[in-house]
Design brief:
One of its GO terms (molecular function) is carotenoid dioxygenase activity. By secondary structure, the chain is of the alpha+beta class. The protein is built from 9 helices and 37 strands. Helix content is about 15%, strand content about 30%. The strands form 9 sheets. The protein has a 7-stranded antiparallel sheet, with no helix packed on it. Strands 7, 32, 33, 34, 35 and 36 form a 6-stranded antiparallel sheet that branches. The N and C termini lie far apart (about 60 Å).
Length: about 675
C-alpha cells in the first residue's frame, strides 16, 4: 500500500510512491502520481490497478473528436427542425481549426480512471462517521412523486426529439469528451472530493444544541450560499458549476434553527422533472470540442422546445444580498432569484427576479449597497456580445436608474467590484473569455498575458461612459475586492491579488497565492501603485458593511491555506500602531471553515467599527460534523463565544449574509 498525502495547492490529490513501483506514464513527476479516483468514491476504498488507464498526451484524439463533433451538429440540426445556422457554423469552425499545443494548465491532466462514479447513498444527516463515509459524494435521488412542472406539456415531436437528443448525448457527446482526459479543474472526482461533495436538502430543525453562551442581541438569520450539484455529473464538473443551495441558521428568542434548501432555478426545475442534467456546465463542460458539442446539444434542445433558453441557465449559487426587503440569490450567469425567509426559519424560492420588470440581464454575485443612500449598485456582463459590460443601480425603493453601457475590448471575467462616495470602481483584468479557444481544444476562460490590467473609475450617477477614467494596474488580478474609498486625488482599493490569475479555472504548476493588497489609483497623474499588506493567503471575507465605500480599519478574511480549504479566520487591523496587523483564529487539525460574516452588535451608528460578531461554518473532516461558530469580532484573536451543533453536514461553499430580525420584519412578500 502507498502512503498518501494531499497536495491542495493545485486542487489535486497526489500519492507518494513508497513501494518501489515505477512512476506513471503521464506528466506527473516520477515520485508522485495523481490519485486516479478519491479513495472514498469507489466501493471498498482505493481503486485497483485494473481501474486505472494512463491518458494519451495532451491533444491526442482531437482529430477523432472532430468527426464526432460534425456528426452531433448535423444530427442536432435535423432534430431541431432545420434551424442549423449556429450549429453549422460551430461544426465548420471546428473542422477548420488546427490544433495547437495549448498551455499546460488548460490541457494537462494526470492519471484517469475508466470506471464511472458509483451511485452513492443519499443520507446526509450526521451521525458519527468514518472518513470514507464522510468523503463520498452524496447525490440526492430525484423526487419522482412530485415533479415540479417547468412548462407546457410536450407534443409528439418534442418527445421524440428529447429521446433522440438524449441518445446523442450518451453515444456521441460523451465519446467526444472521452477523447481528451479531463483536467483536474474539471474532474468531478477532484472537484467534489470530501466535504466539497453535495448533500440533500435539510428541513427546518429547531432547538439546536448550543455550547457556550449566545449573545442575547444576536437576533436574525445567517445564510450562506454554495454549489451543490443536484445530479451526479455525467461529464466535466467544476466546483462553481453546482446548483445553488442556501444553508440558513436562525436565532430568535434564544432558540436556534437550521435548514438547507436548493434555490429552485428554472434550470433545476427542468432537470428535476427530467431526472437528469440537460444544461451544459459553464466551466466543467464548456472546454474543447466536447464543450462545442455540449453547446450544440443545448441549442438543439432549445430549438426543439425541450428547454426554454429565454428562461436562462443560471445556478444562483454564489452570492446573497438583502435589499428593499428582498433576499436575492445570485450567480453572474443569470438574473438573481428571489428567496423568501419564512416565519419558521425555512426558505422558499419565489421566482426569478427582474426588479419588477426593470432588468432583463444577468447580475454579478457581489452587488454593493451604499450605506449612506441605501442604493444598490451592480454590474452585468455578457461574454458573447459587446459592449460586454453594464453598470446599474437600484434605489432603496426598488426603482432602477438607467443602466450605463461600458465598452470593453474583449469580455472580461468580472466577479466583483467596489464603490466609493463618488465612483464605481471597475476591474478590467487579464482573465478573459474567448469562446474560440474551445475550437482549439482549450478552455474559453484564459489568461491573456498581452493585456494590461486596468481599473475604471465611473462617476456613480453618470448616465453614460464618457467620463470613465481608466488607470493601468500591471499584473493585477483580484477575484474579490473588499472595499474602496477616496483620499484626496487617490482612490484606495483593497483586494486580494491572485496568482496565477486563472488558476481557479485552469491547471497550473504554480501554487496559488491570494495576497491582501492595497491599490492606489491617482486620478490626477493617471498612475497606480500596489503593495502587499499580508503574505498569508486571504480570500473570502467581509467588513462591517456600514463602512462600504469609506475608509475602514478592520477586515475579516478567510485563511485559504491549504488552498482551496479554509483553515481559519484572519482579523486584519489596517491602522494598528505597527502598521497592518494580522491576527488569526485557527481551527483544530482536520477542521476547515467558510467565509466569515460580520454582524454588528447594535444599529448605533456611533458604535466602534469592530463592535459585533463574526459568524462562520466549520466542518470537522474526522467526525463528519458541522458547526456554526459565533466569534467576538472586537477580540484580536476572535474569541469563541458559542458553537451551534448542526444537524446535517454543511459542504464548503461561497458567500453569505445576515438579516436581522428588524430587517426581516420589513421583508416583502412579493
Amino acid at each position: 500500500m502507498r502512503s498518501a498525502r494531499k497536495d491542495m495547492e493545485h486542487g489535486r490529490v497526489r500519492i507518494a510512491a513508497t513501494d518501489g513501483r515505477p512512476g506513471c506514464r503521464c506528466s506527473c513527476r516520477p515520485d508522485q502520481q495523481l490519485l486516479p479516483l478519491p479513495l472514498p468514491m469507489l466501493p471498498g476504498g482505493m481503486a485497483s490497478e485494473s481501474q486505472i488507464r494512463y491518458p494519451p498526451r495532451p491533444g491526442a484524439g482531437l482529430s477523432r473528436s472532430r468527426a464526432s463533433l460534425a456528426s452531433i451538429t448535423n444530427q442536432s440540426t435535423a432534430l431541431a427542425g432545420g434551424h442549423g445556422n449556429l450549429s453549422q457554423q460551430i461544426s465548420l469552425k471546428a473542422s477548420a481549426a488546427q490544433h495547437r499545443g495549448g498551455r499546460k494548465n488548460s490541457m494537462s491532466v494526470k492519471c484517469q480512471s475508466t470506471s464511472s462514479l458509483p451511485p452513492p447513498p443519499v443520507d446526509t444527516h450526521v451521525t458519527e462517521a468514518s472518513p470514507s463515509r464522510i468523503q463520498r459524494a452524496e447525490f440526492p435521488a430525484p423526487d419522482r412523486a412530485a415533479p415540479q412542472k417547468s412548462g407546457k406539456r410536450r407534443n409528439f415531436f418534442q418527445q421524440m426529439a428529447a429521446s433522440a437528443l438524449d441518445h446523442i448525448e450518451r453515444t456521441v457527446v460523451r465519446h467526444i469528451e472521452s477523447q481528451v482526459p479531463l483536467p483536474s479543474t474539471a474532474d468531478p472526482r477532484v472537484q467534489l472530493e470530501g466535504n466539497f461533495s453535495p448533500v440533500e436538502e435539510s428541513p427546518v430543525q429547531h432547538e439546536l444544541e448550543v455550547v457556550g453562551k449566545l449573545p442575547a442581541n444576536l437576533q436574525g438569520v445567517y445564510m450562506r450560499n454554495g454549489a451543490n450539484p443536484r445530479f451526479q455529473p455525467e461529464g466535466g464538473h467544476h466546483f462553481f458549476d453546482g446548483d445553488g443551495m442556501i444553508h440558513a441558521v436562525r436565532f430568535k428568542d434564544g432558540i436556534v434553527s437550521h435548514c438547507s434548501r436548493f434555490t429552485k432555478t428554472y434550470r433545476l426545475r427542468v432537470e428535476e422533472e427530467e431526472g437528469h442534467p440537460l444544461f451544459p456546465k459553464a466551466i466543467g463542460e464548456l472546454h474543447g470540442h466536447g464543450g462545442v458539442a455540449r453547446l450544440a446539444l443545448y441549442f438543439a434542445r432549445s430549438l426543439a422546445g425541450i428547454v426554454d433558453s429565454s428562461q436562462g441557465m443560471g445556478v444562483a449559487n454564489a452570492g446573497l444580498i438583502y435589499h428593499n426587503g428582498r433576499l436575492l440569490a445570485m450567480s453572474e450567469d443569470d438574473q438573481p432569484y428571489l428567496v423568501r425567509i419564512k416565519e419558521d426559519g425555512d426558505l422558499e424560492t419565489v421566482r426569478k427576479f427582474d426588479f419588477d420588470g426593470q432588468h432583463h440581464k444577468s447580475m454579478i454575485a457581489h452587488p454593493k449597497i451604499d450605506p449612506a443612500t441605501g442604493e444598490m449598485f451592480a454590474l452585468s456582463y455578457n461574454p458573447l456580445m459587446p459592449p460586454h459590460l453594464y453598470c446599474f443601480r437600484v434605489g432603496p425603493d426598488g426603482k432602477k436608474a438607467p443602466e450605463v453601457a461600458i465598452t470593453l475590448p474583449e469580455a472580461t471575467m468580472m466577479h466583483d467590484f467596489a464603490i466609493t462616495k463618488r465612483f464605481v470602481v471597475i476591474p478590467d483584468q487579464q482573465v478573459v473569455f474567448r469562446m474560440t479557444e474551445m475550437l482549439k481544444g482549450g478552455s474559453p476562460v484564459i489568461y491573456n498575458p498581452e493585456k494590461m490590467a486596468r481599473y475604471g473609475l465611473l462617476p456613480k450617477y453618470d448616465n453614460d461612459e464618457s467620463r470613465i477614467q481608466w488607470i493601468e494596474v500591471p499584473d493585477c488580478f483580484c477575484f474579490h475586492l473588499w472595499n474602496a474609498w477616496e483620499e484626496g486625488d487617490e482612490v484606495v482599493v483593497l483586494g486580494s491579488c491572485m496568482t496565477p490569475a486563472d488558476s481557479i479555472f485552469n491547471e497550473s504548476d504554480q501554487p496559488l497565492r491570494s495576497l491582501l493588497s492595497e491599490i492606489r489609483l491617482n486620478t490626477t497623474t493617471g498612475k497606480s501603485t500596489r503593495r502587499v499588506l499580508a503574505e498569508t493567503n486571504l480570500e473570502a471575507g467581509q467588513l462591517n458593511r456600514s463602512y462600504v465605500g469609506q475608509q475602514n480599519r478592520f477586515l475579516y478574511l478567510a485563511i485559504a491555506e491549504p488552498w482551496p480549504k479554509i483553515s481559519g479566520i484572519a482579523r486584519v487591523d489596517l491602522q494598528a500602531e505597527e502598521g497592518v496587523r494580522v491576527t488569526k483564529h485557527l481551527y483544530e487539525d482536520g477542521c476547515y471553515g467558510a467565509e466569515p460574516v460580520f454582524v454588528p452588535r447594535t444599529s448605533d451608528p456611533n458604535a466602534p467599527e469592530d463592535d459585533g460578531y463574526v459568524l462562520t461554518f466549520k466542518h470537522n473532516e474526522k467526525t463528519g460534523r458541522s458547526e456554526l461558530l459565533v466569534l467576538d469580532a472586537s477580540s484580536p484573536s476572535l474569541d469563541l463565544l458559542a458553537t451551534v451543533k448542526l444537524p446535517s453536514r454543511v459542504p464548503y461553499g461561497f458567500h453569505g449574509t445576515f438579516v436581522s430580525e428588524a430587517d426581516l420584519a420589513k421583508q416583502s412578500l412579493e
